[in-house]
Amino acid sequence: MEMTDPEINMVWQSFDYPGNTLLPGMKLGRNLVTGMEWYISAWKSTDDPAPGEYMERLDSHGYPQFFMWKNSSIVYSVGPWNGIGFSSSPKNKPTIYYSFEFVINQQEIYFKYELNEPLPTRIVINQAGLVDQLTWIERSRSWLLYVGTQADSCDRFALCGPYAKCNINNSPPCDCLQGFEPRYPNQWYEADWSSGCVRKTSLTCNQDGFLKLTGIKMPDTRHSWYNQGMNLEECKKMCLADCNCTAYSNLDVRNGGSGCLLWFGQLIDIRKLSHNEQDLFVRVAASELGNDPTLYHFLILF
C-alpha cells in the first residue's frame, strides 16, 4: 500500500513498516540519508498486533550486523554477512526458490530477499523472538514452516564471554580459545562464563602470530573495521601492524575470498558450527602457537 500527496510525492508505504512480517522485496536495515529504519517486531500476542518484547534490527557500528533485541537487551546475533549468508546460519543460503541481498553504500544499509520462483513465502518473528520462514501450500491452503529457528543455549548473545567459544555438543558448552584461560577460574567452573577468558601470554605487537579458527560463527563486529577492496594478505599485514587489532578475516567468502574485516578489542559471541566457509585469524603471542608441526596446518606464523 502507498500514499501520495497531490504532487505525486511518496509520503507513506507499507513496505517501510514490516510489522512482524518480512515479505520478498522488503528491506531490513536503515536509510542513512533520511534516518528511516526498517525492522521487524513481534506482536504482543497472537491476536494483538501491538509491539511485543522482541525486535530484529540493524546495528551499523563497525561492520553492520543484525541483533535480536528483547526490550533493551541483545539476546541474539545472526553474525556478520559473508557474501552468501549470515555467519550463524551457514545452511541458510540462496536456493532455486529465493536469493539474498545485503547492500552497504552511502545511502542505505539493508538486507532483503527475492523470489526466483512463484512460491509465496514470508518471514515472521513470533512472540518468543524466533524467526520462521513460511511457505504457502495451495493444496492445503495453509502456511507451512519452510525454515525455522531452533534456538539453543549457544544462541544466547555472548554466553561464554570474551575470547571463548560455545559448542552446544560439549558439556559444559563454553571453552577458552587456544592461548587463553578463564579470567576468574572459580566462577568459570561454577558455570558462570560471563567474564570469559584472558590471554595466558601478553602480546608483543609485531612479534605476535595468528591462530586460525574454522567452522565458527564470526565474533560481534561492533568494534571492527572493514574494506571491500583488500585481499587476505593485505588484511593480515594491516592487522599485524596495528597492535590494537585482535583478529582478521575475509569479508566475502565467494570466489576464494575477498575484502578485509578487522576486529579491535575483545572478541565475543563466538560459537562452534558444523560448517562455515569463513576463517577467523585470532592474534596470540607467538609462544602460544607451539612447536608441534601437526599444528602448522591450522596456524599462521610470522
Automatic annotation (TrEMBL):
Keyword match Transport: no
Start and end residues of each Apple domain: 205-285
Pfam families the record matches: B_lectin, PAN_2, S_locus_glycop
Keyword Transferase recorded: no
GO BP terms, alphabetized: recognition of pollen
Record's keyword terms, sorted: Disulfide bond, Glycoprotein, Phosphoprotein, Receptor, Signal
Signal peptide span: none
Source organism, top-level taxon: Eukaryota
The protein, known as: G-type lectin S-receptor-like serine/threonine-protein kinase At4g27290
Originating organism: Nicotiana sylvestris
Annotated gene: LOC104218570
